[in-house]
Design a protein that fits this description.
The protein is 40% helix and 21% strand. With 641 residues, the protein is α/β, with parallel strands linked by helices. Helix 6 runs parallel beside helix 7.
C-alpha cells in the first residue's frame, strides 16, 4: 500500500475525533464516509486503501461490512473493525466470516491500538511467510512457516481458493511451527474456514503454540475451529513423502557443505549452523528430526552442546562427528544423550545409513509415545464420561423411581366394594414404569365403568400418557352408560392431545347392578374372555379402532365402535389381559398364544380370581424358562359371586 488513504464509518464521538486528529498527525489522509444510500459508490470514488468501521448512527457493523465485502471492486480492501466495551458481546465469528481483516478493542477512548494496527498495514518489511503444500489421500496439507500478516493473508486465501476451484474438499492447515500469530491471522483462519465450508469442504488446523490457542480462546473461537496438536492425529503421513530434517553444526564451511550436499542428494532437508551457541537458540524454532554436531568447535564443543541441549529430553536424536579416535569421548557423548557418533573422514553411505536407522527408531519411539499418550487421553476421557454417565444414571434412577411411585398412586390401591362382584389384578411393567392402565369408575347413577388399557410404548413417556388418559376417563365417562359413546369422546380428545404416533388400545365395560348386565366395547385391545361357570370359554369381540388414530371430524362416518351386552351369572368371570402375555416368546421364539391361554382358563375355571391370575402367571414363567418378559404384563379378573 502506497497511498495512505483511510475511510472511517463511525458515529460522531470523542473516539472518532481523536482518530481523525491523530491519524492526520501521523501522515494519513483520513475521511469520514457519509452514511447514505450512495455509500458504496462514494467509497469507490475515494480510492481508499483501508476502511475502519465501528458503531455507527445508521446501520450495524455487520450490515456495512456485508455491503463492502459483497462488492467485487471493494472486496480486496482491508477492513478494520473497532469494538469498545459496549460492544463486547458482538459476534466475533460473524464479523470475521463477513470479511473483516482484523478486529481491535478500544478501552477508555485509547486509540493507540488502532493506530498501531493501521501502521502495520503500511509496514514495508518483507514477510517471512512460506507455504508448503502436499496431497495425501485426497487431503491437502498446507504447512505454514513464518507469520500471517496482511500480505500473507491474501497469499493463503488465494491458495485455498485455487485448490477449491480444482475440486479439493478436505484441508489441513499445519501451523505447528508457528509460535505466534497476529489477530489478522485469526481473521484469515475464519475466512478460509468459511470459504471451504461454503464449498461443502472440511478443514482442520494443527496448532501446537499455547499462545495461539490462548488468543483463539480469548476471542471465543476455540469451539469454532477443529484444532489438533499433531498432523499425525488426523492423517497418517507415509514415510516416503516425508523429508528428514537434519541440522548440521560445524564451524568448517567446507565440511558443512559436503555433508549438506550429500544428504540433499539422498532426499534429506538440511539446515546449517556455524556456531553451536547460535544453534542452541535457533533449534527450538526449527523442529528438526536429527542433529549432526562436530566435536571440535571454538565457541562450544560437541560434548558441551549435547550436555546443554539434552537430546533425549528434547526427543531429537543427535550424532556427534569427530576426528578424534578417543573411545572415551565417544562413550561420554553417548552417556550425555547422543544417539551415535561418527569419525571423520566418514563414508557417505555409512552416514546415510546411520541417520536413516536413527530416524526410523526415533519415529517409532515417537509414534509409540504418541499412541500411548493418545490412549491415556482416551482413558481419561472415558473415565470422565463414565462418571458423567453414572451421575446421569443415578439421576435417571431417581426420576424413574419417582415416576413409578406417581404411576402406582394413579392405579387403584383397592377396588370399590360392588355388591355381588369381586376383582383381582396382576400388574408387572417391563420397566420400573409402564404403559398399561386399569381403573374402576363409580358413576352417580349407580353404574360402574371398568377401563383396561394399553398405551403404546414403555417407560416414562407411556406412563405420562397413562396419567393423561386417566384424567380424560374420569372426565368423559361420568354418567355415560354407553361404552361406545364413551369411546367416541375419548378418541376425539386423544387425537387432539397425544403426540403424533402415540395411541391407546382399550377394553371398556359398564356394569349395571339392577339386572347384572354388562355392556362392553373395545378399541383394538385384546378381546376379553368370558369364563362361564361350567368352563365354557368365549372371546368378547367387538369392532373398534385404536384410540388416537383419527377423529370423526377428520374422517366423517369412518369412526365405529361396536357395543355388545351380556349377562353375568353367579360363578361367571371376565378375564382381561394385555398382549404382553400372548406375545411372550420362549427360547424357540414360539408365542405363548391365545389358545394356550384359553385352554388354561377352561381347566381352571372354578378357581377364584387371584388364584386364577397366579396360575396363569406361573404357567407363563414356566413357558419362558427364565427368559424375561419384554412387554408390560397386566391381567384383570371380574368375578360374579
Amino acid at each position: 500500500m502506497k497511498a495512505k488513504k483511510i475511510g472511517i464509518i463511525m458515529e460522531k464521538n470523542k473516539i472518532r475525533d481523536k482518530i481523525l486528529i491523530n491519524f492526520q498527525r501521523n501522515g494519513y489522509k483520513i475521511y469520514v464516509i457519509p452514511e447514505d444510500e450512495e455509500i458504496i459508490s462514494t467509497i469507490k470514488k475515494m480510492n481508499l486503501s483501508l476502511i475502519i468501521i465501528s458503531k455507527s448512527e445508521q446501520k450495524e457493523i455487520l450490515e456495512y461490512l456485508s455491503l463492502i465485502k459483497g462488492d467485487e471492486e471493494l472486496e480486496e480492501i482491508p477492513v478494520l473493525i473497532t469494538l469498545d466495551k459496549n460492544m463486547e458481546n458482538s459476534d466475533i465469528v460473524k464479523i470475521l466470516k463477513n470479511g473483516a481483516t482484523d478486529i481491535v478493542y478500544v478501552k477508555d477512548e485509547n486509540i493507540i491500538p488502532i493506530l498501531n494496527m493501521v501502521n502495520k498495514f503500511w509496514d514495508n518489511k518483507p514477510s517471512k511467510f512460506e507455504m508448503e503444500t502436499r496431497e495425501i489421500e485426497e487431503i491437502y496439507i498446507i504447512k505454514i512457516t513464518g507469520n500471517i500478516d496482511l500480505s500473507s493473508n491474501f497469499k493463503l486465501q488465494n491458495k485455498v481458493s485455487e485448490l477449491l476451484k480444482e475440486g479439493v474438499k478436505n484441508f489441513i492447515i499445519n501451523m505447528e511451527e508457528i509460535d505466534y500469530i497476529e489477530s489478522v491471522g485469526i481473521s484469515t483462519m475464519v475466512q478460509i474456514k468459511k470459504n471451504i465450508e461454503q464449498k461443502l469442504g472440511e478443514i482442520k488446523f494443527v496448532i501446537k503454540s499455547s499462545q495461539i490457542k490462548k488468543l483463539i480462546s480469548m476471542v471465543k473461537l476455540d469451539k469454532y475451529f477443529e484444532i489438533h496438536n499433531d498432523v499425525h492425529d488426523i492423517i497418517e503421513i507415509p514415510g516416503s513423502l516425508r523429508k528428514i530434517k537434519v541440522v548440521i553444526i560445524d564451524d568448517g564451511k567446507f565440511m558443512r557443505k559436503l555433508i549438506s550436499d550429500t544428504l540433499k542428494i539422498e532426499g534429506f532437508e538440511t539446515i546449517e549452523f556455524e556456531s553451536a551457541l547460535v544453534a542452541l537458540d535457533e533449534i527450538q524454532n526449527i523442529s528438526p528430526d536429527l542433529i549432526l554436531v562436530d566435536y571440535e568447535m571454538p565457541d562450544m564443543n560437541g560434548l558441551d552442546f549435547i550436555k546443554k541441549f539434552n537430546p533425549q529430553l528434547k526427543g531429537i536424536p543427535t550424532v556427534m562427528l569427530t576426528t578424534e579416535r578417543n573411545i572415551d569421548i565417544a562413550l561420554k557423548a553417548i552417556r550425555l544423550g547422543a544417539a551415535d557418533f561418527l569419525n571423520k573422514p566418514f563414508d557417505r553411505y555409512e552416514l546415510i545409513e546411520i541417520l536413516k536407522k536413527i530416524d526410523r527408531g526415533n519415529k517409532l519411539k515417537q509414534e509409540n509415545e504418541r499412541l500411548f499418550f493418545k490412549l491415556k487421553r482416551r482413558e481419561k476421557e472415558l473415565e470422565r464420561k463414565n462418571r458423567e454417565l453414572s451421575k446421569l444414571y443415578e439421576a435417571l434412577e431417581d426420576e424413574l423411581e419417582m415416576a413409578s411411585e406417581i404411576q402406582k398412586n394413579l392405579l387403584p390401591i383397592k377396588f370399590p366394594e360392588i355388591p355381588g362382584y369381586n376383582f383381582a389384578v396382576k400388574y408387572q411393567p417391563s420397566q420400573d414404569i409402564g404403559g398399561d392402565f386399569y381403573d374402576i369408575v363409580s358413576m352417580s347413577n349407580g353404574y360402574y365403568g371398568i377401563a383396561f388399557a394399553d398405551v403404546s410404548g414403555h417407560g416414562i413417556p407411556a406412563a405420562l400418557l397413562s396419567t393423561m388418559f386417566k384424567v380424560y376417563l374420569m372426565t368423559y365417562s361420568e354418567d355415560i352408560i354407553s361404552p361406545a359413546e364413551t369411546m367416541e369422546l375419548l378418541n376425539d380428545v386423544v387425537v387432539k392431545t397425544f403426540p403424533e404416533g402415540k395411541f391407546i388400545s382399550l377394553f371398556y365395560l359398564v356394569i349395571k347392578l339392577d339386572d347384572n348386565k354388562v355392556m362392553y366395547c373395545k378399541a383394538a385391545q385384546e378381546p376379553g374372555i368370558l369364563i362361564k361357570k361350567d368352563g365354557t370359554i368365549e372371546e368378547l369381540i367387538t369392532k373398534g379402532q385404536v384410540l388416537g388414530l383419527f377423529s370423526e371430524e377428520d374422517f366423517p362416518g369412518m369412526i365405529e365402535f361396536e357395543e355388545k351386552e351380556l349377562v353375568l351369572d353367579p360363578g361367571d368371570k371376565i378375564f382381561l389381559y394385555t398382549d404382553g402375555i400372548i406375545e411372550a416368546q420362549n427360547k424357540d421364539e414360539i408365542f405363548y398364544g391365545i389358545e394356550r391361554l384359553k385352554e388354561l382358563l377352561a381347566i381352571n375355571h372354578s378357581k377364584k380370581g387371584q388364584e386364577l391370575l397366579d396360575i396363569v402367571y406361573g404357567d407363563l414363567m414356566d413357558y419362558l424358562e427364565g427368559l424375561p418378559v419384554i412387554d408390560d404384563l397386566t391381567m384383570f379378573v371380574i368375578e360374579k359371586e
